[in-house]
Amino acid sequence: MYKKTTLSNGLRVITERMPSVRSATVGIWADVGSAVERPHQRGISHLIEHMLFKGTHRRSARQIAETMDGVGGNLNAFTDKETTCYYAKVIDRHVPLALDVLADMFLHAAFEPQELAKEHKVILEEIKMYDDSPDDLIHDVFLQTMWRGSNLGDPTIGFAETVVRVTPEDLRAHMRAHYSPNCVIVAAAGNVDHSLFVETVAEQFAGFEGNCAFPQPESPTLTPATNVRYKDSEQAYIVLGTRGVDVRDERRYAASLLDTVLGGGMSSRLFQEIREQRGLVYSVYSFQASYRAAGLFGVYAGTSPENVQACIDVIVEQFARVRNEPIGDEELDLAKEHVKGNLTLSLESTSSRMIRLGRNELALGREVTTEEIESRIDSVTPEQVQAVAQELLVDENLGLCIIGPVDEGSIVWSSHAA
User: Which residues span the domain enclosing 399?
Assistant: First the structure.
């Protein structure tokens, strides 16, 4: 069901047909994110994403919204560290219309100064929203702390002082530098015919020419430290973590199972120890932030200020346990089925499949089948998971970030960063 065609201008077109559904998700991917930005323009990639919805030479912002609402479609976009994606989910017969709207936005954005001035304000409000959401903000603080001074470490949304300085010409220059056919993918998943879709894409992008340099993945130096930000809140928000694996690392399957065993579900060690056995938190989980040449692994917990030390102690203890003791076969089998089950459930969504198509093409340059992933997961041994834990979860690489009513001097832990 997977097919790929490269047009004469270098644009890649990828589809995955799902004949059992009546919908499709179409996405236009640009191989650019905040990791390529210069510090004084931090947030420009995300600002471009916003501005493509603010009108073209053919359609106003309202007309873009009404066109998609008129067919019951969903139009959206996201920017991350290494990619930007504009996408629409529609009934299958409206795929040509969705592609027309997306291509119009992508190729003919107006970037009117008055609209940019309004969008500056919108993004400033978005930044304030994140600042008032410590459970989200703590993840940005963690990246900034562990990759201090790097592009990957700084927030994708940018900073208030950098966002407001971006001009329409800055936006156009950034797009000229990074939005060329060789660095763009058009992907679709759902009830789509590849040949017809390629024809439609070729028509919509007939005048899209040029060439740009592929982005060079950043591999920042790890800078573990303790970073406590005082905030007068009911809870304290904790991330304790270390370096991880990148998305191209062959150990990523073992790392995924390590993540699952430690904090990937209700049966995970951290959930059972911190929430079920001790009642210290409502939310606790582990996570991976993986990019093309770098990665981080961390544990999040939200708890009352008086329980911060106890949560940290349990996390450090569990890191030591998974380093020192091989995971039992039964626990590892449970983790494998958890990972494979989540993968299978995600495949029922055309949006999830389209996102997998784009991410795999940009990061790996190829399709990664479900069968390949399941085979690689099944082949992981307890010794391989322990080896990853022994390499990653070492005390000298641990960084601790806290937002809440906590005095840094009251936190005691064994890492050199304390």
Answer: 226-410
- pTM here? 0.95
Could you tell me the CATH number of the domain that includes residue 79?
3.30.830.10
pLDDT value, residue 105:
98
Same domain? For 24 and 171 the reply is: yes
Angle (CA) 249 371 289, round 5°: 35
Name residue 79's amino acid: T
Task: Label residue 409 by pLDDT band (50, 70, 90).
Answer: confident
Residue 35 falls within a domain, yes or no? Answer: yes
Annotation marks residue 374 as catalytic: no
Query: Do 253 and 189 share a structural domain?
Result: no
**Catalytic one of 16, 37, 49, 218:** 49
Whether residues 260 and 165 fall in one domain: no
Q: How confident is the model at residue 412 (pLDDT cuts 50, 70, 90)?
A: confident
Domain count for the chain: 2
Contacts 24+ apart (CB under 8 A), 72-75: 73/98, 75/101, 75/102
399 contacts 238 by C-beta, under 8 angstroms: no
DSSP letter, residue 304: -
